[in-house]
Design goal:
This protein is α/β, with parallel strands linked by helices. It has 3 domains: about 5-55, no CATH class; about 60-85 and about 110-300, 2-Layer Sandwich (Endonuclease, Chain A), CATH 3.30.870; about 315-479, Endonuclease, Chain A (2-Layer Sandwich). Helices cover about 45% and strands about 20% of the residues. It contains 19 helices and 19 strands. The strands form 3 sheets. A 15-stranded mixed sheet has the order 4-3-2-5-6-8-1-9-18-16-15-10-12-13-19, sandwiched between helices. Helix 12 (about 315-325) packs parallel to helix 13. The relative contact order is 0.13.
């Protein structure tokens, strides 16, 4: 070995040791993740070191992290209701709300009016109607925005609103909406007076990797009109045929419309996103007086905003706490099921203690890795008594969780590690039997188009299938 080769081997060994120590000492990491990274780094020194530096840690740029925390610290918190224990079934369901409040310091609100759009196309048309009726402000936050029929309906409505003097702001994720950013439609928005921003811009990929992770995305989907109406859900601003991935269409989503104090909390998340990505200070919107609320018996609702700037376990803890509160029934829909132990055990424990537990996933998933990983958990789920179903009529993209036909969670977050640790997400936790009945009916419509997963189904995967699924699941802690 030449001196140069010896020197290179020493440098590589030192780098491998340094990265291995860093991976082991990294806080807020499950033991399985530490083991997985240690194996990768030792077995594949060069590839392992590079992989760890690129995706091994949930890192957002220091500037963005500090700026985000400064913004959240000084933003005025919209008011809520001081004591809702009497509304939350004598306090039985207050634990999920108390935990949710600890994330953004946004309290529960009452007196909210809520509706569920009939389908994705109806949701777009109703959002356009609200934009057309706007008088002061329209704020849109998009993960994926496509230049298709529905995407252009929204774009045209924003342009019309701006033309009549409404202040319109739109922010769209750099990767999810990259095709829209490069199109003439994005330029048309800017030229018409709509104030546009790119969320989490990538810029030079190498520099992005050095200062953070390129795959930390703003996955939130929201529309806030006149500081009093908010749309929240799983739907992107696109046709259900989803042109960029038509093979899995239609994409089946839920979109909810909220009127009441909780809309101001949705505005809070938009303001933090807007200012965090370089937009002007619009925090005064959060201090505007709320009109007298004569609907004190409306839905109780609370906004949950999670992401790399809040504590790492925020979203999975909220999912698990809501599952633990179930006494009779728990129904969950999600397109991407890659749970951590906390969420998996909460789900299986609910079934084991006699709660009628239903989980619906898509039969055909747009991610081969996620599909295989999800199926690696089927044995545990079916063995625990979870009633498991696969939706066969498209990609079930709705993210819903309903407990005892009373309390629920709807929004953008999936039951996977990306939503738990990497993405900026927005969800609404609610308590309202009337709205819960509407959501439950929608879940029943999904069930009607789903096939049950039984022990025979799991046995039918065979040795090769289980080996593939479990191998993918082994890698999930490092994805």
């Amino acid at each position: 070995m030449t001196p140069l080769e010896t020197f290179g081997a020493i440098v590589l060994a030192l780098a491998e040791a340094a990265i291995l120590v860093r991976a082991i000492l990294r806080p807020h990491r499950e033991p399985a993740s530490r083991i997985a990274w240690a194996v990768v780094i030792v077995a594949l020194p060069i590839a392992g070191i590079i992989s760890y530096l690129l995706i091994g840690e949930v890192r957002i740029s220091l500037k963005r992290r500090v700026h985000g925390r400064e913004i959240e610290a000084r933003l005025p918190k919209p008011p809520g209701d001081g004591d809702l224990a009497s509304r939350l079934d004598a306090g039985f369901y207050d634990a999920p709300f108390a935990l949710a409040r600890s994330i953004n310091e946004l309290p529960p609100t009452s007196g909210n009016k809520v509706s569920l759009a009939a389908d994705s196309n109806v949701a777009i048309d109703e959002m356009v109607d609200d934009i057309n009726a706007a008088t002061t402000t329209v704020h849109l936050c998009a993960y994926i925005w496509l230049a298709d029929t529905n995407g252009c309906k929204i774009k045209d409505a924003l342009i019309r609103a701006s033309a009549r003097g409404v202040t319109v702001r739109a922010i769209a994720d750099a990767l999810g909406s990259r095709l829209f950013h490069r199109s003439a439609h994005w330029r048309e928005l800017a030229e018409s007076g709509v104030v546009v921003r790119v969320a989490l811009p990538v810029g030079n990929p190498l520099w992005t990797f050095i200062r953070g992770r390129v795959d930390l995305r703003n996955h939130r989907k929201s529309l806030i009109v006149d500081n009093r109406i908010a749309w929240i859900g799983s739907q992107n601003f696109a046709d259900p045929e989803f042109r960029i991935k038509p093979r899995y269409a239609p994409w089946v989503d839920v979109m909810t419309r909220w009127e009441g104090p909780v809309a101001r909390h949705c505005q809070y998340l938009f303001v933090s996103d807007w200012m965090g990505d370089g937009g002007e200070d619009i925090s005064s919107l959060l201090s505007e007086p709320w009109p007298p609320n004569g609907n004190r018996n409306g839905a109780v609702a609370q906004v949950i905003g999670t992401g790399p700037t809040v504590r790492y376990d925020a979203m999975p803890s909220c999912f698990a706490e809501l599952m633990h509160s179930a006494r009779r029934e728990l129904v969950v829909t999600t397109p991407y099921f890659v749970p951590n132990d906390q969420v998996l055990f909460a789900l299986t424990s609910a079934a084991r203690r006699g709660v009628d537990t239903v989980l619906m996933l898509p039969k055909k998933n747009d991610s081969v890795v996620v599909a295989g990983t999800s199926r690696s958990y089927y044995q545990d789920l079916v063995g625990a008594g979870v009633r498991l179903f696969e939706y066969r009529c498209g990609l079930l993209h709705a993210k819903t969780m309903l407990v005892d036909r009373k309390v629920g969670l709807i929004g953008s977050a999936n039951l996977d590690r990306r939503s738990f640790e990497l993405n900026f997400e927005n969800n609404v936790l609610f308590d309202d039997e009337q709205f819960a009945a509407v959501v439950r009916a929608r879940q029943d419509s999904y069930l009607a188009d789903s096939d049950p997963v039984t022990q025979d189904t799991v046995d039918g995967f065979g040795l090769a299938g289980r080996l593939w699924q479990n191998s993918l699941a082994m890698m999930s802690p490092i994805l």
